[in-house]
Amino acid sequence: MKKTILKKIIAFIFITFLFTAYAEPWQGIKVKPAENTIALTFDDGPSPEYTPKILEILKENHINATFFVEGQFAKRYPELIKQIYANGNVIANHTMNHLMLTRLNSKSMQTEISGTNEIIEKILGFQPKCLRPPYGKHNKSIDDYAHSLNMAVLNWDLNSFDYERPGTQKLIAWVLKNTYNRYVILLHDGGGNRSQTVAALPAIIKGLQEKGFGFETICN
Predict the structure, then answer these.
(1) How many CB atoms lie within 10 A of CB 193?
(2) Closest CA to 108 of 93, 119, 95
(3) What is the pLDDT confidence band of residue 26, given thresholds at 50, 70 and 90?
(4) C-alpha span between 67 and 47 (Å, rounded)
(5) Structure confidence by residue, pLDDT tens digits, 125-146
(6) Is the pLDDT of residue 187 over 90?
(7) CA angle 138, 90, 166 (to 5 degrees)
(8) What is the pTM assigned to this prediction?
């Protein structure tokens, strides 16, 4: 048990360092929130079951977030994309089918990214400014292609591990304990059962506010 916990802590520190180091501004695109603020980000949606609930919580607390959407779901649920944006949130690119880009050939990699941009543009009239590669995996080829589309490549500072469904209270405690100034927090509104994320979100927001943090969007 102790070895498992230690391994998880080491992995968390390494991943946080790695992904923070790769967060690269591009063409003036904001990839970090301002001083004394936090950026909430949601991946793998939109989901007709969980995204509306998350949007309602954000609205009730008068804050906005950045949603890294998958093209396949954006195409399937365009009204949710419109609702996310109409509520003042930011739409960003999480590829078409959530495939690991580093394992694809060049043409398939480009289609995963540009195809999602095209779908979002058809819905909202503009293309997103950020790409978050699935699983956080990217390389120079992926970065160069994203940059050719005037997109920043952005991961996160804190992985909430909400996809592991550790329990609502553990999820809240993990995020509040490990969030620091100007952090980008990874959460999920799709890709599986996100009931714990929905349940934890009000307490996460309240707890971060009690620590003196405000909230900002990124990728705008």
Answers:
(1) 12
(2) 95
(3) low
(4) 11
(5) 999 999 999 999 999 999 999 9
(6) yes
(7) 65
(8) 0.89
pLDDT tens-digit map of 10-22: 444 444 444 443 4
DSSP label at residue 34: P
Closest CA relative to residue 63, chosen from 201, 165, 190, 174: 201
Peptide bond into 134 cis (omega under 30): no
Around Cβ 114, how many Cβ atoms within 10 Å? Answer: 19
Contacts with 60 (C-beta within 8 Å, 6 or more apart), sequence order = none
At 163, list the tokens.
């996809």
Convert 12-30 into a string of H (helix), E (strand) and C (coil). HHHHHHHHHHHCCCCCCCC
DSSP category for residue 212: T
Active site residues: 43, 188
Token pair of 19 as six digits: 């992904």
Long-range pairs for 172-178 at CB < 8 Å and ≥24 separation? 172/200, 172/203, 172/204, 172/207, 175/200, 175/204, 175/207, 175/208, 176/204, 176/207, 176/208, 176/211, 178/12
DSSP 165-205: ---HHHHHHHHHHH--TTPEEEEESSSS--HHHHHHHHHHH
CA-CA distance, 126 to 119, in Å (whole number)?
10
Residues 26 and 16: their CA atoms lie apart, in Å, by: 20
